[in-house]
Specification:
Blueprint lengths: L2 H18 L6 E16 L11 E3 L1 E12 L3 E16 L21 E17 L13 E19 L9 E3 L10 E14 L4 E12 L20 E14 L5 E3 L5 E4 L7
Antiparallel strand pairs: 1-3, 1-10, 2-4, 3-4, 4-5, 5-6, 6-7, 6-8, 8-9, 9-10, 11-12
Length: 268
């Protein structure tokens, strides 16, 4: 799926939003900051494979824009930067002797660094009606499903070597012309809590399924020398702060009085 196709999907969804938004809808904008880590690589039949690296946590960041659709539902997009990294002191790669950059044995400790610049489109579901809300600090659960793509800037090198001396890479150094994009599917589970009529915070956990074998920058091969065509899974944990633009109607306070304004996504 190309970037152009993703942009077409976004335009289509925005067109849907203009006709199918919740009466109390306003724009929601915010940012999330957290950590990311490669979890595993799997076959097309969803069987796990041995990790060739010790995967480490690294920063992850995104900017998000969304809008309410109907009761319980949200539609949005985000733009993200995710860093993935890992290393091994005892390299043992299936690509050795097969991949053109690894025809000679890799004998010293090595590391990978991957920067994923991406965009996602998602549909969110809030488990409580948006018509009534109690605040502050009431936890409200939600779930999201979506699709997206990542553009890779990748380094695979000896740990002791400078950053410009790579064994292999994408979109950097002498590999600058080697561009790589991959598609992904993801699921996010989270909670949010309002602190005022407009401001809320989120905590989220996401699992992202990448359709290409390159999260750790090293391709995997079968015993017969054919490419293994694995898929990758990485996860993110993030904390977010968001602003909702609309002034909404009445909401029920914890004492049972309808005297304050409705907040989006939750309530009774």
């Amino acid at each position: 799926m190309s970037k152009q196709f993703h942009l077409l999907i976004i335009l289509l969804l925005l067109n849907i939003v203009s006709f199918a938004q919740h009466p109390n809808a306003g724009m929601i904008i915010g940012t999330r900051l957290g950590i990311a880590k490669v979890n595993t690589e799997i076959t097309s039949g969803f069987k796990s494979t041995p990790n060739e690296f010790m995967h480490k946590v690294a920063p992850a960041f995104d900017l998000e824009l969304s809008k309410l659709l109907f009761d319980h539902w949200e539609l949005g997009t985000d733009f993200s930067i995710t860093f993935l990294r890992g290393d091994t002191d005892n390299p043992n790669f299936s690509a050795e002797g097969i991949h053109p950059s690894m025809l000679s044995p890799v004998t010293e400790p090595v590391e990978y660094k991957n920067q994923l610049l991406g965009q996602k489109v998602f549909v969110g579901y809030y488990f409580k009606s948006i018509e009534r809300y109690e605040y502050p600090f009431k936890l409200e659960p939600f779930i999201r499903l979506g699709i997206g793509y990542d553009a890779f800037t990748s380094q695979f090198k000896y740990i002791e070597a400078p950053d410009n001396e790579l064994i292999f890479g994408k979109n950097t150094g002498k590999y600058k012309a080697a561009k790589l994009f991959s598609n992904n599917l993801f699921i996010t589970m989270g909670i949010k809590s309002y602190t005022s009529n407009h401001l809320f915070f989120t905590t989220t956990f996401s699992l992202i399924y990448s359709d290409y074998d390159f999260l750790d920058v090293v391709h995997n091969y079968n015993a017969d020398g054919t490419h293994a065509n694995l898929r990758g899974i990485y996860s993110e944990i993030k904390l977010g702060i968001f602003y909702h633009s609309n002034e909404l109607g009445k909401h029920k306070s914890r004492k049972g009085h309808y005297s304050k304004e409705v907040l989006p996504f939750s309530g009774k």
